[in-house]
Amino acid sequence: MKKLFFFIGLCIIGFQQNVGGWPxxxxxxxxxxxxxxxxxxEWAAAAW
Length: 48
Known about the structure:
48 residues
């Protein structure tokens, strides 16, 4: 049981520093969302 708890403890990320911090996200142009539902119009049209 001790080994199982030790292994599970290694798999849980407790702090962002444990995995190298946050990635740098690139800024871009937000896709058009005319109905403000959070789903870009292009994607919604392709899905329906």
